[in-house]
Design goal:
mainly alpha, Rossmann fold
Length: 111
């Protein structure tokens, strides 16, 4: 879908049509609501997210309204993540894991 969005932006940009993709993360919908029935799982997901909360449908809706407005007329071919920093959090989590591995190697030698 990301590549399709970018191609739409190229194909239709000259006609004044913008194409962007909204990429939601954990949003409090019926599907995610099932996962949130487990307090342990909810706490785990919220702890992982940099902003420490599950998103609400309104979080995504505000982005959609912005993209539909004249305020976004120079934005096209973009993927806009509405994920509470989840993707950024993955990078930090992997970096921390790498640091932890290096500490183990220092302490115990290579294995």
């Amino acid at each position: 879908m990301i590549h399709f969005t970018k191609q739409l932006a190229v194909d239709y940009g000259r006609m004044g049509i913008n194409a962007n993709a909204i990429c939601p993360g954990y949003i409090n919908t019926q599907l995610i609501g099932i996962l949130m029935m487990s307090d342990k799982l909810k706490e785990s997901i919220e702890a992982f997210l940099p902003i420490k909360r599950i998103g609400e449908p309104e979080d995504v809706a505000r982005v959609a309204v912005f993209l539909a407005s004249d305020e976004s007329d120079y934005i096209t071919g973009e993927e806009i993540r509405v994920d509470g920093g989840a993707l950024a959090g993955v990078a930090e989590m992997l970096a921390q894991t790498q640091r932890d591995i290096q500490e183990v190697i220092k302490k115990h030698g290579e294995f």
